[in-house]
Amino acid sequence: MDDDLTSLSPKPSRDRPLAGMSVLLVEDSRYASEAIRLLCLKSGARIRRADCLASAHRHLSVYRPAVVVVDMGLPDGSGAELISELCGHAGGPVVLGLSGDRDAEQVALDAGADGFLAKPVDSLAAFQQIVLSAAAPEMRPMGPRPIARTEVFHDPAALAEDLLNAADLLKDAKESGEFEYLAHFLRGVALSSRDTELGAACDALAEGPGPALWRVEKLLRNRIAASA
Predict the structure, then answer these.
(1) Cα separation of 113 and 125, whole Å?
(2) pLDDT (tens digit, 9 = 90+) per residue, 134-146?
(3) What is the pLDDT of residue 142?
(4) Which of 53, 59, 54, 72 is nearest to 111 (CA)?
(5) What class does CATH assign to 6-139?
(6) How far, in Å, CA of 186 to CA of 198, rounded?
(7) pLDDT value, residue 92
(8) Virtual CA dihedral for 180, 184, 189, 190, nearest 10 degrees?
(9) Which of 54, 64, 126, 170 is most buried, taking the most CB atoms under 10 A from its CB?
(10) Dist CA 73 CA 98 (whole Å)
């Protein structure tokens, strides 16, 4: 079914307040993507994923989502670029920034985002509230609705895939000397999986390699072994 055939789409309800919405998630982490996919499904929304800016543009060239959730640090550029592009057109989708970085929310809002999701994104109530508060009135369910207390359970296979991807990124970063994207990606994975030790190491790596690089490499090796 075409995503633009809204007349045939289900209507939002008290239990499925995002029914009828289509969501494009632009996120490079499979682990974070799986959590948001589950939140969308529990809320009644349909979801597609793009893992980079180029993939997002391919999706947007063939269908029109109601909501676009954009991670602020992507392998081929900043999510702020896509947010600014989407918010530059009248009648466009609801656009939400997504990140675990402390300063990213203001960057997303300055680029024109309608709202912001802070990692880890695992509360159904918080997710629904942020999406609905940014949506047009006609996209929201009528009347009061129960507060969803559910938290999603994450996929260990998705986490293992992200860790292996991070190991490849680390190898490339050691050759190029560029650690910014690696630190961003791995910090997002650490936040989503609530791994405070790995998150702290990534924060240190963002300040410069040195001893932080050895620590991240050791923790990553241990996490991959544990996931296996």
Answers:
(1) 20
(2) 988 777 766 555 5
(3) 60
(4) 72
(5) alpha beta
(6) 8
(7) 86
(8) 90
(9) 170
(10) 9
Going by C-alpha positions, the residue among 31, 75, 34, 36 that lies closest to residue 56 is: 75
pTM of the model: 0.88
CA distance 51 to 128: 22
- Cα within 13 Å of Cα(31), Cβ side: 25
Q: Kindly list the distances between the CA atom of residue 86 and the CA atoms of 57, 182, 194, in Å, as whole numbers in the listed order.
A: 10, 26, 31
Question: Residue 4 has what pLDDT?
Answer: 43
Task: Inform me whether the pLDDT recorded for 194 exceeds 80.
Answer: yes
Tokens of 77: 């550029």
Every domain of the chain and the residues it spans? 6-139, 156-227
